[in-house]
Amino acid sequence: TSGGQKIYKLASNDGIMIEHTGKKGKEKFAVALACNHPNKAWLTSNTDIGLTNYTDLSGRVTAGMTDAQLNALGGYDAGTAKANTNALVSASSPAAQFCRSVKIGGVACDLPNMNQLRVIFALKDEIDALDHTVAANPNTALGSWNFGGASFAWASTEGSAGGAWYVYSSGTCNYHRNKTDQAGVIPVREM
């Protein structure tokens, strides 16, 4: 990619793999295709589900950022997408339940944590270029970052009792949004 990360379409043809260096070392995860990016609520009520409430993950992501630039952004969610999504599924999260209904390589997906969502935003155009479902699903392509009318996408990272982390279409990262709001859901499979 322009930022130096490695991305490629999986042989299973149902996801795009991202290999990059995160704050804790080498990471790999696959992103579901545009045909699987709806908008859903994080929760059906504003409640704290017991995950760590991070308040230091703000900043602004831009297309083409390098790993070093992404890692220089504030904060780090120590929870994996899988662990966070397990907690969300237990809390009957519409976003998490949808992610678990999507499979990449035969394995159920998770809602990305904030670390992963920032990487996805930085690589959104390059991911779309490899996604054969973009032409038929322009309203949920990552490049538009407008998931059926929602101009932001959820992370599985909790910010407060009333808010969860998201990346807005401008690349701004925040958590001051009601968990009951409809936002983009981008299933991932951690490797």
Explain this structure:
This protein has five helices and twelve strands. The chain is an alpha+beta fold and 191 residues long. The strands form four sheets. It has a four-stranded antiparallel sheet with strand order 1-2-3-12. Helix 2 packs across helix 3. The chain is globular and about 40 Å long. The two termini are 20 Å apart. The mean pLDDT is 96.
Feature tags:
5 helices; 4-stranded antiparallel β-sheet; 191 residues; alpha+beta
- Major sheet details: 4 strands, antiparallel
| Helix-residue proportion | 10-25%
Return the average pLDDT rounded to an integer.
Answer: 96
What ranges have pLDDT less than 50 throughout 5 or more consecutive residues?
none
- Beta content: 25-35%
The structure class reads alpha+beta
Rough outline: globular
Give the number of helices: 5
Supply Rg: 15 Å
Report how far the terminal alpha carbons are from each other: 20 Å
Total strands:
12
Oligomer: single chain
Report the order of strands and helices. Answer: EEEEEHHHEEHHEEEEE
In short:
The protein is α+β, with helices and mostly antiparallel strands and 191 residues long. The protein has helices at residues 67-71, 81-90, 94-101, 114-122, 124-130, and strands at 6-9, 15-22, 25-32, 39-41, 59-60, 103-104, 107-108, 152-158, 164-168, 172-174, 182-184, 188-190. The strands form 4 sheets. It has a 4-stranded antiparallel β-sheet with strand order 1-2-3-12. Strands 5-10-9-8 form a 4-stranded antiparallel β-sheet.
